[in-house]
């Protein structure tokens, strides 16, 4: 038992290549290698079954169902080719979903992440109460997005809600309004709540990144006469780049799949003005029983995530991921 | 940095604290407002939405705590979180062990497959997953939430654990083997006990993710008997939409477990998230 299961080659970091074949083969070597492979594969089996069965298989099925007119019961049989997709890209609500996703991404990159970075820089200094601020800013991240949404739905209730009441008390009625109920402010309100909930998470990532910036470098720049801004711009920021790239990536993926917050506050309303791709998919798949059409939405969401992820990995993330996914080394990239 | 801090430190810290206090207030006020509103009657809340309660009404909170419904939600959320975590950690640890300590054909391809899983939001697979669960008769069954949550949590957990397992020196494994340990014996008796901090980190991540999940339980549980906390809160709000004070009390009580868990597991949570993000 013990010697047959002994791995014949141990894997240091980066050892991805198979063991050299040009060696003399002692008897039983092939059998031992087969056993070794079986042991390794056996450890992988539960994860593989779970992942294949519940992540990959459903996705493949959606890809299939997207080519049918199908109410969701029995097997799909009414094949309609690419009709669901052509309909999708003429559907004003879905095109609006894409536009709103883009708006959220742009707002996040332009406002939320820079704000998180500013807070991280402030909290990276030695100061009294630093741990308290850090904990407070991050706390909303651990709350359920649905529960957070319900809370802010009540805070931003028109007129009676806390927000309008406070603005009225301090003489700023003009700033108040219908919030989630007004088509022209609903996305801004959604973004406000997203920022409240998620900027602390990005701040924590940046803080971890900032802690890894060697002190000697900023000090050397200081001695060379660099101003605080120059030190930040030319020393800290470049070293923080890997963290920033990951944070941007997570932010975009978050915008693509946004559902909980919108569902509990507006369910996509008023009149689709805050609808997201996931909400539209939910409406068609679970409320109107146009499951083929809803599958097409899933497939497009998947396609957008895939294209974004691959492009981002190819052009932006590659260097950062290399440490984790040593795959690149084996196939000569 | 130290020089500038000494020369104009006082003024700068003052401004710094002002900014942080303002941001801190914006973060804290919604939560405090909810807590205070829970201590008002709905009448008072419409008359006096902003100030302290005129008389502190505790009945909103005690009624909820005295009802079986609330505790059933807590129980369901706990069951599902624990089930998900146990499954995710067990399955990922086996897989990460194999990735970290074995060289085998197809290893890197398989690992890439798992890392690809990181890239895809759950919402994308929600509908086909629902259809699959329905055909497996797993709707209104906690396994219908536990199994998919575990499947979607695998990539991150495997990546974190693999990184940790790789750091454990190979000599240990050789020594264990010489002492007559099988591969699984080494994994079980040597590696897992050593990996306790990493296991703690991934467990905390799994618990928080499961506890806050809304979309999947919304799809899977139509029977109120299985509702989890976020679903229960949404239902309660729908049912008592006119009684604001009650809903606020409910929201506050629903937030307490997550915040309490955060306060005891902050280190693991933050460590896990930053490790996951920088390694994945």
From TrEMBL, chain A:
GO biological process: transmembrane transport
Stored InterPro entries: ABC_transporter_permease (IPR051393), MetI-like (IPR000515), MetI-like_sf (IPR035906)
Main location: membrane
Protein keywords: Cell membrane, Membrane, Transmembrane, Transmembrane helix, Transport
Coiled-coil segments: none
Keyword Chloroplast in annotation: no
Domain of life: Bacteria
Region described as Disordered: 1-27
Entries under CDD domains matching the protein: TM_PBP2
Membrane topology recorded in Swiss-Prot or TrEMBL: Multi-pass membrane protein
Cellular-component GO terms for this entry: plasma membrane
Transmembrane regions listed in the UniProt entry: 34-67, 102-123, 135-157, 186-208, 239-259, 291-312
All copies of domain ABC transmembrane type-1, residue ranges: 98-312
Subcellular location: Cell membrane
Entry's family note: Belongs to the binding-protein-dependent transport system permease family.
Protein name: Sugar ABC transporter permease
Automatic annotation (TrEMBL), chain B:
Entry keywords, A to Z: ATP-binding, Cell membrane, Membrane, Nucleotide-binding, Transmembrane, Transmembrane helix, Transport
PROSITE patterns: ABC_TM1
Subcellular location: Cell membrane
Topology versus the membrane: Multi-pass membrane protein
InterPro entries tied to this protein: MetI-like, MetI-like_sf
GO cellular component, one term: plasma membrane
GO MF annotation list: ATP binding
Residues annotated as domain ABC transmembrane type-1: 74-265
Protein family (similarity comment): Belongs to the binding-protein-dependent transport system permease family.
Entry's transmembrane regions: 14-36, 78-97, 109-133, 145-165, 245-265
Protein name in UniProt: Thiamine ABC transporter ATP-binding protein
Keyword Transmembrane helix: yes
Annotated CDD domains: TM_PBP2 (cd06261)
Species classification: Bacteria, Bacillati, Actinomycetota, Actinomycetes, Kitasatosporales
Signal sequence coordinates: none
GO biological process terms on file: transmembrane transport
Keyword Transmembrane helix: yes
């Amino acid at each position: 038992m013990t010697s047959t299961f002994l791995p014949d080659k141990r894997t240091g970091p980066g050892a991805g290549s198979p063991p050299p074949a040009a060696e003399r083969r002692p008897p039983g070597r092939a059998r031992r290698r087969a056993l070794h492979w079986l042991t390794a594969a056996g450890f992988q089996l539960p994860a593989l079954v779970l992942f294949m069965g519940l992540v990959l298989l459903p996705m493949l099925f959606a890809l299939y169902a997207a080519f049918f007119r199908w109410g969701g019961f029995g097997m799909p049989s009414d094949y309609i080719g690419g009709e669901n997709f052509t309909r999708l890209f003429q559907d004003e609500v879905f095109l609006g979903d894409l536009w709103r996703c883009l708006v959220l991404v742009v707002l996040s990159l332009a406002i939320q992440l820079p704000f998180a970075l500013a807070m991280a820089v402030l909290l990276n200094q030695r100061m009294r109460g630093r741990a308290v601020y850090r904990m407070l800013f991050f706390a909303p991240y651990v709350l359920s997005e649905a529960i957070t949404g319900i809370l802010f739905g009540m805070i931003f209730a028109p007129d009676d809600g806390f927000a309008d009441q406070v603005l009225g008390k301090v003489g700023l009625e003009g700033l108040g309004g219908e919030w989630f109920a007004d088509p022209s402010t609903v996305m801004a309100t959604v973004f406000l709540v997203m920022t409240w909930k998620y900027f602390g998470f990005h701040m924590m990532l940046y803080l971890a990144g900032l802690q890894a910036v060697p002190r000697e470098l900023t000090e050397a720049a200081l001695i060379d006469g660099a101003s605080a801004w120059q030190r930040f711009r030319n020393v800290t920021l470049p070293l923080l780049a890997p963290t920033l790239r990951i944070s941007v990536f997570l932010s975009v993926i978050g915008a693509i799949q946004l559902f909980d917050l919108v569902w509990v506050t507006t369910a996509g309303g008023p009149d689709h003005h805050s609808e997201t791709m996931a909400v539209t998919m939910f409406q068609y798949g679970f409320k109107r029983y146009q499951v083929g059409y809803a599958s097409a939405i899933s497939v497009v969401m998947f396609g957008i995530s895939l294209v974004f992820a691959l492009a981002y990995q190819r052009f932006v993330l590659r260097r950062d991921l290399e440490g984790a996914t040593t795959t690149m080394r084996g196939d000569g990239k | 940095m130290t020089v500038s801090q000494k020369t104009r430190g006082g003024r700068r810290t003052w401004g710094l604290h002002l900014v942080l206090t303002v941001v801190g207030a914006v973060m804290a006020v919604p939560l405090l407002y909810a807590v205070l509103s829970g201590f008002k009657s709905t009448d008072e809340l419409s008359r006096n939405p902003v100030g302290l309660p005129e008389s502190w009404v505790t009945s909103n909170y005690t009624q909820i705590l005295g009802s079986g419904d609330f505790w059933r939600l807590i129980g369901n959320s706990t069951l599902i979180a624990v089930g998900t975590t146990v499954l995710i950690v067990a399955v990922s640890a086996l897989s990460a062990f194999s990735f970290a300590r074995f060289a085998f054909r197809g290893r890197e391809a398989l690992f890439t497959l798992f890392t690809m899983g990181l890239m895809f939001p759950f919402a994308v697979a929600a509908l086909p997953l629902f259809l699959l669960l329905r055909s497996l008769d797993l709707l209104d069954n906690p396994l219908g939430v536990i199994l998919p949550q575990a499947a979607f949590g695998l990539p991150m957990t495997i990546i974190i654990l693999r990184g940790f397992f790789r750091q454990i020196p190979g000599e240990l494994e050789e020594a264990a083997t010489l002492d007559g340990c099988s591969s699984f014996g080494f994994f079980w008796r040597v590696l897992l006990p050593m990996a306790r901090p990493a296991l703690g980190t991934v467990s905390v991540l799994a618990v928080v993710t499961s506890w806050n999940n809304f979309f999947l339980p919304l799809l899977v549980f139509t029977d109120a008997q299985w509702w989890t906390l976020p679903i229960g809160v949404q239902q309660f709000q729908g049912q008592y939409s006119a009684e604001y004070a009650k809903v606020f009390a409910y929201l506050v009580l629903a937030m307490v477990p997550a915040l309490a868990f955060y306060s005891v597991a902050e280190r693991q949570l933050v460590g896990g998230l930053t490790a996951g993000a920088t390694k994945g």
